[in-house]
Amino acid sequence: MITHIQGKLIEKTPTSIVIDCNGVGYSINISLHTFSQIPEKENVKLFTHLQVREDSHTLFGFSSKLEREIFRLLISVSGIGASIARTMLSSLSPNQVMDAIAQNDIATIQSVKGIGSKTAQRVVLDLKDKILKVYGLDDVSTTSSNTNKNEALSALETLGFTRKQAERVCDIVVKENPNASVETIIKQALKNL
Hints:
By secondary structure, this protein is of the alpha+beta class. The protein folds into three domains: 4-62, CATH 2.40.50.140; 65-134, Orthogonal Bundle (DNA polymerase, domain 1); 139-192, Helicase, Ruva Protein, domain 3, CATH 1.10.8. It has nine helices and five strands. It has helices at 32-37, 65-75, 82-91, 94-102, 106-110, 117-134, 139-158, 163-176, 182-192; strands spanning 4-12, 16-21, 24-30, 43-52, 57-62. A hairpin with a 4-residue loop joins strand 4 (43-52) and strand 5. Helix 2 crosses helix 3, helix 4 packs across helix 6 and helix 8 (163-176) packs across helix 9 (182-192). The longest helix has 20 residues, at 139-158.
């Protein structure tokens, strides 16, 4: 198993990169999240997952071990292949995927292109216990802060801010103060928008 590749960045696109490692060029599939994390410098290191099939060996690269672990959990679910898992990690950050699974947020998972309601339910059903146990998330407290965050997001959208913009700021506020009330989240978010 190839666990990581470190070398000179030769080519970079939103879906793949080429890393030269001692004269051998490795083409590595990446998510948009990883694409945004890769620095523009020459030397890069990606954590990898090698998918071996009858007709191909495909490398997937990730900017963090957490993202790789989430990818591996996702592809362990029946109905989720590597391309859908990569699409999910392109649409949502690894933390957003973990939060959605931990909080039974099927709508967020279903918002990813290629995932229907049954597949989204299967993702939550198969992975919730693993996510809660492995990453030590507290089911109850996370849910209440997520409810407050969602209410704050709705309010900010009503005020005319885009969902992505508001979500980014709300995530920062909730991370700093997990027990923040809806009002607190909105006030802090408005200061940063």
